[in-house]
Amino acid sequence: MPTALVTGASRGIGRAIARRFAADGYDVAVNYRSSEAAALEVVDSIEDETDGAAIAVQADIGDDDAVEACVETTVDAFGSLDHVVNNAGINQHRYTPDLSPDDFRRVMNVNVAGTFAVTKAALPHLEESTVAECPSVINLSSRLAHAGADYEPHYASSKVGIIGLTKSHALEFGPTIRVNAIAPGYIETDMTDATTSEEEKEQKRQEVIPVGRLGKPEDIGQAAAYLRDASFVTGETLNVNGGQRMQ
Ligand SMILES: NC(=O)c1ccc[n+]([C@@H]2O[C@H](COP(=O)([O-])OP(=O)(O)OC[C@H]3O[C@@H](n4cnc5c(N)ncnc54)[C@H](OP(=O)(O)O)[C@@H]3O)[C@@H](O)[C@H]2O)c1
């Protein structure tokens, strides 16, 4: 079976991507930082509902040694690595006067340097992949990379960085490996629940998002499956936001 590593797959968008890849016939490594029980629940759900295998792999994506070990554990378990989804990310709702340079660096370290580190560790294995659709890397950017974000300047900056990294790696790794990004709009997960009231959600549904609903993690799972299979697409950022921001 072809294989994929999804970082930050214990919850939210990463969980949906891992489950979608498994449903599509992939063995999946479910990376997590601290939510072991949730990651094991994802593994169990994959093994119950699909023919594929899954493993939970603990690693802090901000830690280079842990990243190396995570990739090696994945390859040892499955024998190959065909796709990487760099989904793990953190945010923090803080206005610049209350944001320290260390806060800024911490978000950049996980979101951008962590994405770089996972891709670099996976590179030799992706180069050896023989999957028909061409091995790929899919990075999670955000609508806020384009729009900016008050209270989240470090987060928005990190998501711009992801787009630069995606294009650069698409140039460096072609034609062997494709590299794309997804820029989700508002997706209901723990990350967004932490900063949005029910009134704000209703306003987004009614006035802000043309399709009239909030995004679901499965919407991003579908986008990731498209980019995984789209053998003539590389260096792209796919906007998945219900029309909230059209380009
Ligand atoms: N939700 C949205 O509306 C939205 C919009 C645009 C972009 N995004 C991006 O989509 C991605 C997923 O977002 P989400 O809303 O699903 O987030 P979430 O609900 O907060 O889940 C975050 C996931 O990332 C993991 N994680 C966090 N820090 C990690 C680290 N240092 N090492 C390894 N894993 C780590 C968490 O693991 P633990 O459970 O172990 O902590 C969890 O599985 C992020 O990159 C985010 O920036 C989200």
Sequence-ordered SSE layout with sheet pairings:
Elements: E1 3-6, H1 12-23, E2 27-32, H2 36-49, E3 54-58, H3 64-78, E4 83-86, H4 101-127, E5 136-140, H5 144-147, H6 153-173, E6 178-184, H7 190-193, H8 198-208, H9 217-229, E7 237-240
Parallel strand pairs: 1-2, 1-4, 2-3, 4-5, 5-6, 6-7
Helix pairs in contact: 1-2, 1-9, 3-4, 4-6
NADP nicotinamide-adenine-dinucleotide phosphate is lined by residues 7-14, 31-35, 38, 60-62, 87-90, 110, 140, 142, 184, 186-187, 189-192.
Enzyme class: oxidoreductase
Family: Belongs to the short-chain dehydrogenases/reductases (SDR) family.
Keywords: Oxidoreductase, Plasmid
Describe the 3D structure.
The structure is a single chain. This protein has a single domain (3-186, 217-240), classed as NAD(P)-binding Rossmann-like Domain (Rossmann fold). With 247 residues, the protein is α/β, with parallel strands linked by helices. It has a seven-stranded parallel sheet with strand order 3-2-1-4-5-6-7, with helices on both faces. Helix 1 packs parallel to helix 2 (36-49), helix 1 packs across helix 9 (217-229) and helix 3 runs parallel beside helix 4 (101-127). It contains nine helices and seven strands. The longest helix is centred in the middle third of the chain and has 27 residues, at 101-127. The mean pLDDT is 97. Keywords: Oxidoreductase, Plasmid. InterPro entries: NAD(P)-bd_dom_sf, Sc_DH/Rdtase_CS, SDR_fam.
